[in-house]
Amino acid sequence: MSKPSSRPSKRATQKRAAILVFVILLLFVCGVTVVVNTVRQIIDLFAAQGMSVEGTTTFTWEPDSATLTVAVSPVMAPVLRELAEEFNRSQQRTPDGQRMKVDIVAYEPEEMVRAAQFRPPFQAISPDSGLWLERLEQLWQSSFTEQGQEGERAMPIGQRRISVQQRYAVSPIVLAAWEDVARQLGWPNAAVSWQDVQRRAKEDPDFKWSHPNTKHASGLLAVLAEFYAAAGVTRGLTVELATRPDVLEYVKAVESTVRFYGENEDRVVERLEQEGRNFLDLFVAQERVVIDWNRRHSDARLIALYPAEGTLWTDHPLALLELGQLEGELAVTANQRRTFQAFTEFLTAEPAQRHLLAAGYRPADLSISLESEGSPFAGTDAVDWRQPQTTLQMPPAEVVDVVRDYWYYTKRPTNVYLVVDTSGSMEGAKLTATKAALKAFLAQIRGDRDRVGIIEFGSGLKDYSLLMPLDDPTRRRLEGMIDRMEASGGTALIDAVYAAVAMLQEENQPDAINAVVVMTDGLENESSRRLSDLQVLLRSNPSLPIVIFTIGFGRDADEAALTEMARIGSGQFRRADEADLEELYRIISTYF
To answer: Environment class of residue 374 by beta-carbon count within 10 Å: exposed (0-12), middle (13-18) or buried (19+)?
Structure first.
């Protein structure tokens, strides 16, 4: 039987190396006895932090522990944390006297699913959609296949990764639009369709709309709704229907008008706070986002548009994992199960359900009126508790997988240049981390029509690869280029970005998402051009929007210059260090 494996992380490798150097020094200075005692202390320290010296993550809890750790999607985490704190204040106890306690940790759903497969640091999960629970079960079952007997499971079919689950809140997926935009689309007199959005985007080049990448529930549910609309059905979406040529062409036409993709809706709200309506005219989100925004911005309302063809819902389940099935993995204790049951009862009771309603979610308890006094649905036309009129049926897991795969064919294509600083200050661990991050970015780009190029710079342009479709030969070629990168020279940051923008303009493909992702660890000191020159270049072809993402690597990066560069490129500035650079590149890849 094959089992999932856990490979040492880069940070774990660095820690082991540090330990080895420390031990050698101690041998010279202190003698064997002191070294043994000191190493034991080090091992205890790493174990307490959840890291073994072998590099395999280990998480422990006492056999009678009544503390339940729940991994929660970032959008729901703040609300569930408030409820967990209220639950903890009730000081409920198990039959043997242990105090029940719930800890909330935020996880992106895809990372949550990945972590839940092998010795997770939590016992329960609450993603924003039951889609992720199905995905976890798929991956869990596929991890256990009989060696040499393809497709035959080695564990009993009933041995699942999830033992019990409970839905505690729901929110439909809507099109969130500024009020004047909603009226222009026909609200409130007529329901707005996906084709209405496509038509508006085609007619008005300044119209900007977006939905999250399909790695986020609201993005995937929106794409499923597009496939349903294309097929002309509200139930029974099959693989055959989803892959019909006319269906794919319909979805492709809608997706071709998306300005860019990206992270979850909370990240969109952050940028709306910073940029206002200049950022987007319309975006896909959970209904609760509209309620929360309008509560804080009564002078600039968003309107929830419920797609005429129907929509799907985020259903926010709370699920207990069935741990202890892997070698060395601790099982969920009897007391943790009691805490899960008690917390589930607490969440589904009327006080917690009203707390969720006040936060903008629809409660799972259908006896609670959405139009009663104090409800965020009462006295407003920005959201409508009577909508959606049509709820689409969640298709089977195999159909969801096909839709997710075919989305890479139907989505808007991408042209992106990775602009990489390999100046002298990047030598050592920084360059190692950068190479891993660049390869991680390439691994996330899956569309056959997506093209990637790389520009390496120091005192000037060192090496470059023009845009090419990211097939297997190109991927290997770019990875080889990354492996050959060496640190030397100064930092001609602006010249490098200017070159990337100029090459995108020479390609002149307005139907694609055109972007530059630039990373540097220092101050501009070698360029012949200035930021004002870059701005003039970007404005020279207004029909070809080019987005610039900037990454400041480490404390010495020029945040002011990178922030301004991202501003004039209508993008974002992010700061990173060696520990999170790779994850940041993965996040940025979701915008394409």
So the answer is: exposed
